[in-house]
Design brief:
By secondary structure, the protein is of the alpha/beta class. Helix content is about 30%, strand content about 30%. The radius of gyration is 15 Å and the shape is globular.
């Protein structure tokens, strides 16, 4: 089993600027597949050794439009990238996406996973949302 360390800071900017340390042990490094939905970027972070069966996924909900964050798109922050890698190390798919309209874009992403799940090796009936 891997080890997880989360760095917590007193202010939000230092917190999101930091990553999350996770030692997955001897697991293979994750594989990243980049897709596009209506010109918006989606990153699917898969376990390094992916079984043939469809996997469950964790969608990291981006509740702030990319242009509204002084830090840039949330999906590009090391913090979110690390969480997606942790999900992959645990045998699931971590899903990150860019957004201009958080509610509409999440709906479109979920419809995309439902329609393209078999091609992407994601089980659309095993999708969790993580919002912070």
């Amino acid at each position: 089993m891997g080890a997880l360390v989360v760095a917590v800071a007193g202010a939000i900017d230092p917190l999101v600027a930091q990553g999350v340390f996770y030692d997955p042990g001897d697991s293979d490094p994750p594989a990243v597949l980049t897709e596009s939905i209506g010109g918006r970027r989606v990153e699917l972070v898969f376990p390094g050794s992916t079984p043939a069966d469809p996997l469950g996924a964790v969608v990291f909900v981006m509740g702030v439009p990319d242009h509204a964050s002084s830090l840039g798109p949330l999906m590009d922050l090391e913090y979110y990238q690390d969480w997606a890698r942790i999900v992959a190390a645990e045998g699931h798919v971590g899903v990150l996406y860019s957004t201009t309209d958080p509610v509409t874009d999440l709906r479109e992403l979920m419809a995309f996973i439902a329609s393209e799940g078999s091609r992407l090796r994601i089980d659309p009936d095993r999708v969790a949302l993580m919002a912070a």
